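LAB NOTEBOOK - FOLDING QUEUE
OPERATOR: T.R.
BATCH SIZE: 2
PURPOSE: Compare the predicted structure-token outputs for two unrelated chains run back to back under identical settings.
PRIORITY: normal
REVIEWER: second-year student, initials M.K.

ITEM 1
FIELD SEQUENCE / FIELD STRUCTURE:
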Amino acid sequence: MNSTNYHKQNGVFCRKALTLAGDFEQSYVSVRAQEQRLYPDAVLRQLPQLPHTHAAGKEWQIRKQSSRNLLRYCYRQQARQILEIGCGNGWLSHQFSTLPQAEVIGMDINFTELQQAARVFAKPNLSFVYDVFTANFLPYRQFDVIVFAASIQYFPSLHGILPVALQKLAPGGSLHITDTYFYASAAAQQQAIHNTKDYYHQLGHPHMSNYYHHHTLADLQPYHYQVKQHAPTWLRRLKKQTTAFPWIIITP
């Protein structure tokens, strides 16, 4: 990735005008550490494989299935230009980079984990970018697939982010939202907001609830979208497993 608007620091492309280490990042990284979601390099290399005994073991079983679906989709669509918004430690962007002829960009405003991602997953067809996602993000680039994996909840408004992302799609491209819960009613949404405030208060970071947003299925109505499950119905019944996280595909 080459652009005069970026300089490279510890393997990460950083937009020159962006200030590092804001309040959100510091609090977010602290919360991630308390949740045991900051992984050593050796563990990160193995993701989405994680022992069931780990505190986040069940979560990674879900992510393993969702990432497989995304990889199959990108392979069938012969996606070459892939952008992951909110890539964190880069494990999923790395998975995308294993696809034939894929060029992958993982972006985030979490410089701490981006540095680890660049160190652990360094390869020619994978770049990590420290930036905010706006219409000015890599203005001359378009993508076949744009992914929000467990990240759309950090954007306050779908109407503020999805139209911008749709404009960044190449012809025939698609947006994908995974590993995020969408609420069926306003009452369920309000209860979730209350639970989130309690959760972050218990962790000692009550202000983090201001950065975590709860979207409803109704918020998706203005867009051309479909909701898919990560496993066929017969398999979910056989394994007696369900996931509250839908796989949402949005096209222009």
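ITEM 2
FIELD SEQUENCE / FIELD STRUCTURE:
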Amino acid sequence: MSGEVLSQSEIDALLSALSTGEMDADELKKEQVEKRVKVYDFRRALRFSKDQIRSLTRIHENFARLLTTFFSAQLRTYVNITVASADQIPYEEFIRSIPKMTILNVFDVEPLEGRILMEVNPNIAYAMMDRLLGGKGASHNKVDSLTEIETRIMSNMFEKAFENFREAWGSISDIDPQLSEFEINPQFLQMVSPNETVVVISLNTTIGEASGMINICIPHVVLEPIIPKLSVKYWMQSDKKQSLPIENSVLQSEIQKADVSITAEIGSSEISVQDFLMLDIGDVIELNQQIDQPLLIKVGDIPKFVGQPGKLNKKLAIQVFDTFKGGDDDGER
């Protein structure tokens, strides 16, 4: 009875039965203990928690939105892609569930180990190719006789589409998906052992009037290094870190500690390269500024003040007596 919500009338009937002796409380406890025993299939090991599956679903919902935008721009027709389900099953069961002839794209996802499989229903794949070649998006299934040109067009299209996978996974891991294999017969494809647990994310896909499924198959070996990042706790901590505000006072105090260079220019001059090469000891270069004019003081490379030279404690110094007027940076810093 755990997991069931009883109405008030059912609760009253249950209490009445217990008080009259029609039901025995010990028998109820025994029944509850017996229900705690669950059948476990060792050939179908569940290696991901519900929390982790929800995180994977959240990632691929973002991936589905990115694919919708990408294919809409490429095909210039109505496209709708949504997540239908996310399950963990043995690899052998996944292979049996897809068509005998279909479009299989295998991707390396460095730095993660293993490979990810994207299976595209032929109805969808041919509708996409027909649109790319200027058609209306008609769909027909002749995967067993793919020409070399059709193979090239499809592999290029899905390789570009899978680049959105990098963005969808950006919050979890920085991956670099690369198409490593293109196949049409699942029996010729052996990525992992038949009993290896894989996560299969199924995407409902509509291209114009054609519809079908796109399945993303991710083996456990790929996800194993990043499993801790698939928990709700990690997502909450990441959001919290991103939302922490920086106090203005702290920022200001750190900026005030920064070192900046200050230079005072006596003047400047322009000469030709030939005159520069002919310079010798004792030569005099005439500057563009009179001796009684104020000097320009720069903070970094930006003119900020004007002043006059002098001495302080037997050291050269310059006295600031006004801010620099003019220039694009005046009053901005």
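REVIEWER COMMENT (ITEM 2): Confidence is low (pLDDT under 50) at residues 328-333.
FOLLOW-UP: none requested
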